Amino acid sequence: MITNRYIRQEQLLEFGPRAQKKLQNAAVLVVGLGGLGIPVLQYLNAMGIGRLGLVDNDTVDLTNLHRQVLYNEADVEESKLSLCLTKLRAQNSQTVLDVHETYLNRENALDIIANYNMVVDASDNFPTRYLINDACVMLDKPFVYGALHGFEGQVSVFNYKNGPTYRCLFPVMPGKSEVPSCDENGVLGVLPGIVGNFQALEAVKAITEIGEVLSGQLLLYNGLNASIHKMRFPVNPKERAINALKDSYSVPCCTPDLEIDALKLPELLKSERNYNLIDVRNPNEFAEDHLEASDNIPLEKLNKEDLFLNADKVFLICQSGVRSLQARDILQKRFPEGTFINVGGGLNRIRASKLLV
After folding, report:
1. Are 343 and 265 in contact (CB under 8 A)?
2. Model confidence over 70-81: pLDDT tens digits?
3. What are the Cα distances from residue 332, in Å, to 3, 258, 274, 302?
4. Residue 356: is its pLDDT beyond 90?
5. At 254, is the pLDDT very low, low, confident or very high (cuts 50, 70, 90)?
6. Which stretches within the chain are classed as H helix?
7. Among 99, 264, 267, 292, which residue has the fewest nearby CB atoms (within 10 Å)?
8. Could you tell me if 100 and 128 are in contact, meaning their C-beta atoms sit under 8 angstroms apart?
9. Which one-letter DSSP state was computed for residue 317?
């Protein structure tokens, strides 16, 4: 350790050299290198954490830059993992950095998480969150939770010293049509920084055993009025009895045969002679980027406008696959005899793979 590097926090009577040593000996896995993951990584790295694990397999998009402030314009389309690795090494050469260039999934979660004392969930989707929870319960590892919606954020620490798990608070994963879309609802750029810093603080408190950790408590932050509320929730013994991962961590969907992976769309369109491809994003998004074969009908107009669909199949696409799923449900009710297929992953998945459609 570099002499006097951490003197300003070691001078705190409640912290001191003993807590600093605990940080140095700790290994923390951060899942997701976006708006939440960046402040978590930067502060844990700066404060002297011993080892950090980085999990992501995404690239930087221009729409990330308003909130993912580690990246700049020159980084667009570059690997988030590679960029973070370079910048974190420059920030603190003493930290051991592990890279996992993958998305966390059922096959690798237990093996990856087993090597760390704690997980910080900086993901942006329910399947990953439930997978992290179940793996952490099985491995007896705490995990720090953070979530965003518009101007609001949530933070908690699950599975800490036999405390409540994520499933104690949210037992059942919501269905696809219940999942909010960041592409549609948005998030204020500064909010991930606030919530990510709360997560970093909770990780430090849990590692060093100072203060009161947010175990069994959900912190609710509202950025519009700067209010903070905390609600308590109990342990559900049934949710602590997990001894195996689920067969699948896909978001529940009642009609899986009416969805395709976005990467399969180009070949499928070549083989289909009679189809419509409808982009349900707003006109501004459509004007900025769209597939050549697509027509634009915004989601909010699907229930209002007269539609003339004379194709055997109608493919529905949006930015990430959330609004298009809602569109499929709307159209299926309006036209029960029609075949409406959601393009899972949407334009984000197609553009990340650099496929041309």
Report:
1. yes
2. 999 999 999 999
3. 66, 11, 18, 11
4. no
5. very low
6. 7-10, 16-24, 37-47, 80-91, 109-113, 126-139, 166-169, 182-185, 191-208, 265-271, 283-288, 322-334, 346-352
7. 292
8. no
9. E
